[in-house]
Each structure stands twice: as structure tokens, then as C-alpha cells.
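User: I need a structural model of Phosphoinositide phospholipase C from Cucurbita maxima for a docking pre-check later this week. Nothing fancy, just the predicted C-alpha cells so I can convert them on my end. Input:
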Amino acid sequence: MGNYRVCLCFIRRFKMSTDEPPSDVKEAFLKYASVAAANMTVEQFHSFLVEFQGDQTASMADAQRIVEQVLQRRHHVISKLTKHGLNLDDFYYYLFSMDLNPPVSDQVHQDMRAPLSHYYIYTSHNTYLTGNQLSSDSSDVPIINALKSGVRVVELDLWPNSEEDDIDVLHGRTLTTPVEFVRCLKSIKENAFIASPYPVIITLEDHLTPDLQAKAAENIKETFGDMLFFPEAEYLQEFPSPEELKYRIIISTKPPKEYLRSKNVKGENSSSEDETDDEDGVDTSESESSESDDSDYESYATGVSEYKRLIAIHAGKPKGGLKEALKVGADKARRLSLSEKALKKATKSHGMDVIRFTQKNMLRIYPKGTRVNSSNYNPMSAWLHGAQMVAFNMQGYGKSLSLMYGMFRSNGGCGYVKKPDFLLTVDPHGKVFDPNAKLPVKKTLKVKVYMGVGWNLDFESTHFHLYSPPDFYARIGIAGAPDDAIIKRTEIKEETWSPVWNEEFTYPLTIPELALLRIEVYSYNISDKDVFGGQNCLPVPEVKAGIHAVPLFDRKGLKYSSVKLLLGFEFS
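Assistant: Understood. Predicted C-alpha cells for Phosphoinositide phospholipase C:
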């Protein structure tokens, strides 16, 4: 029994939950276990993994390993008990183990031999900023953190330092403090492949004089050496694959134009990427300022030629409007950047052109300039139109960032997720996928919310309510195609640290390939705002059928030690 003092007047007593296994767990155990022995042998457990959990790759050795780990943790012995297998409590322990029974795989399983343009790539915006976009410090620490979390595209804004003899990284024309370019490069080199072996792309927003461009080229080559990917031709006709580019660093920026020597170098020949969108919906950014053809570029020194030679993914757009910018050239693959606002305009009038463009070329989307607090936008429209680099501010938190985390839990968290086939194909009539077409239901997901535990271990007893246990409810929703988006909610379970819901929800999906399952838990508060109790976001195509332990994370995306839900998943 638990005691809570209410209003200092009397003691209110609450029964503590005993966490009994749900009836579905008992039924699954009885279906596969030896009834007489009341135990599930390794062979029977293997059948459960293959048939009930739908894990066709599970081997007998996998089943043996899991059984041994459960018995070691629960009984601290293996040899004597392995032959008897798991009892009901052991089986329940396994189902509720976040490491032994996760809802998605942690292995890379997609084909990594397609061109880079065929993948969504985990992309950060102004990666060097520690906080807001106007006055926070620039540092290599957020770059290190981003890379360690699996981010594969790092953005650096390059400016001359105060003496104009070296290169700083900062958000230009703001109060942000600088960090040295070479320090950022060194940190990228040291942390690039801790989370993933697949290539790291550095997008440079370059506000440098030719002399400093030459110095930047020297810094990049000296830092990365053989790790640096040099394209064989000035323009690639097709991007290489992530597999070919394992452990390589790729540079992407606008090729340097001819610059006039001037004392007033800062910002004279370029404009900030986040400043303006022209009336046609294409940004007139530094990185994508107008280019027509190679004759526009006259490298004035060998150093600038070296800088240009480093660029594997050329940024820029042709002269003219959006229609011109989205033209697919036969001889060169390139990168175009649009702000979230410009993307909205582009998809409204040229949605299928955007998809056709992204089949061969890179499209990068970045937050509008008014997001000075480092907030983010909904990434779903960008993904639905094939944009590979959906650049996010990684400094903050919120629903949009949780969707980004969810998407890139796919494919073992390697930072590259294969785009759905429908975004990569052209039909016999030369048409691409129409994102505005009305589509039939392709797959139905059923989610059964059994129960949750762990809050009493990770939170103070007064965190949710001062005088009583929490009143938990769960919100389970789909983020994805507009027709698929929906949120459903369980009943409130009053005054318990271990809520048992046993509620099932059904989600018809027209584009299951891009659906994300949003999970949130709150404690109801009658007189104030409901208190947040954890969240997760799972990529629906990666969710395993069967019953699984789903860990919950705090608002910043850090996993709680003990808080988890037991959920059942069924696809039809």
C-alpha cells in the first residue's frame, strides 16, 4: 500500500499495482508452452518468435540466447534451467525487456547500393549552434552530438574572421559567437563514423573571399586526407551509393564564382541562405545563388580551382523561376535548396515536378528564417515529395523533431533510409507519383495498448500530482500522409503508477511506407495542464508484429531508464 498525505488533514491510501501479465500474454504462453510442465522450452519459444512475433529470421540459436539471458537475469543461473525453458513470469519478463524484445530492428537491412538521391538522409541545419539562431554560441559540441546521434549531413556557415586572414563558423549578421573552421573539421573527422559507417556530407554556406576559399580547401584536404571523396568528373551524372561511399566525407556547396577584390568582403558577394525566398518560391540563397552554366565561373587562382574540385554535390539553381530550377539535366546531378515556405509554394503548383527532380537530384529543405528559437516544421510534406535532405534544428525539441527521430530509427539508425519505390519510379506513360491523388487503403495497423510501468522508478512521487499517484492516459496517433493522420486516446487510469489499459486501436493507412506511429503518455490534471509522461515515435514499416516493449523518451529525446509500454502490433 502507498501513503499520500492530502491537504495535511488525512492520509489517503492507494493500492500499488502488482503488474500481472495481461490475458493476451497468458494466452500466448499457454498456446506455445508445455501444459503439463507449465514451461516453454527453447524449441517452443523459437516457434513463438517465428509464428506469433512474425520473426522469420529468428534461429534456434537466437531463441537459445534469449532464454539463457532471461534465466541469467531472473534466476542468476543458466545450465540447470535452460532445458526447462521459461515459466510464465520469465516469458512476461522477456516481452517487457526493451533490449531483448524491441519494437524495431537495430540492424541495417535496406539495399545500400542505390544512388544517394534514392535515400532520405538525416540532415541538420546550422549544426554548429548551441541554441537559438540569433545570439547563441557557435561550437563544435552540437556537431559532435549530432554525429553521435546518427546525423549524416552537417551544415557550416563560413565567414572571414575579424582579421580576415582565417575562417570562422557562425550564423552571419547575428550576435552568434564564432568557432574556428578547423576545429569543426577536426571534430567531424573524429566523430563522423561512430554511429554509422555511411558517408557524412558537409554542406558549406560560403561567404569567403577567393584567398580564404583556397585556405578552406587546404584545411579540408589536410584534415580528411583519404577520407575525402573527390569526384572523377566536375559534375556527376549520377550520385554514388552509400555503400560505395562508406567512411567517406563529401563536400556540397555552390561552386565559386569570379570575385572582385574588395576590402568590404563580408556578405558582398553572397546572401544568407535563410534570408529570402524570391517571389517564385525558389530561394535566392548564398548556397543556391543564380548560375547558368560553367562559363559563369572563372576561377581566378589555383586555390579556388582546388576548392571547386572538392565539391562532389554541386549546389545552385539555373537562372529563371521554379519550373526552370526543377528541370532534370541529363548530364549532371545537383542539389537545390528551398525553405519550408518555398517548398509549400512549389508543391502546391509543381508537386509532380518536385518528385521527378528528386529521383535524380538532391533537394534540401531548411527552416524559414523566422524560426529564431530553433524550432522546426512538419517534415511529412517534404518526405512525401521525395526531398532527401530535410534540414532540422537539432538544438531544441518538439513534435516535429520527434518525427525526425522516428523516421531515422529506420534501417538500423544508420542515417540513410531508402525512399519508397513509388517515389522512384516512372509509369509507362512517363508519369510519376501524384501526391495529391486519392489513394485506397493499402495496409491496416492495429495497436493494442496493454500497460505501462517504470514511472515510479524514474520520477519523484510528487512529480505528477502532489498528493496522489498519476492518472495516466496514452495518445497513439499516426503522422504521415494527410489522409492517414489521426490521434486516438486511451481511457484515463486513475491513481496508479502502473496503468493497465488493454485497449485496441485501428489505423487504416494509404501510404504505410511513410507512416510514423506517435506514442505519448500524460497524467490527467483536472485543474491545470496535463503532465507529460513520455513519448516515442516508431517508423510503421519497421514495426515488428507481435507483443513488444516500447521505451519512452523525455521531451528532449533522451530515453528514460525504466519507463516503458507493452504494446501489441498486428498488420493486415
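Before docking, keep this in mind: Residues 33-96 form one domain.
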